[in-house]
């Protein structure tokens, strides 16, 4: 078993999204905020909310910033 510090967990897509993006995704897909949030938590690539979130994350550059922060922690 790995020590707690070295266990890698998948990044929660919700933390990488810009402010208000979940509501925007919910409106554009005509889904509830809770449904979008749950889909992002599960991070299944086939879900339309996840696909839209990934597009927004790439557009905002949040993924690059998260990678840079992880490099600083090492």
Automatic annotation (TrEMBL):
This protein's name: Uncharacterized protein
Organism: Hymenobacter rubripertinctus
Taxonomic lineage from the root: Bacteria, Pseudomonadati, Bacteroidota, Cytophagia, Cytophagales
């Amino acid at each position: 078993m790995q020590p707690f510090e070295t266990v890698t967990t998948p990044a929660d897509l919700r933390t990488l999204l810009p402010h208000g993006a979940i509501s925007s995704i919910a409106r554009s897909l005509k889904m509830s905020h809770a449904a979008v949030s749950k889909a992002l938590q599960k991070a299944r690539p086939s879900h339309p909310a996840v696909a839209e979130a990934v597009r927004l994350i790439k557009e905002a550059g949040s993924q690059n910033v998260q990678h840079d922060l992880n490099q600083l922690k090492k």
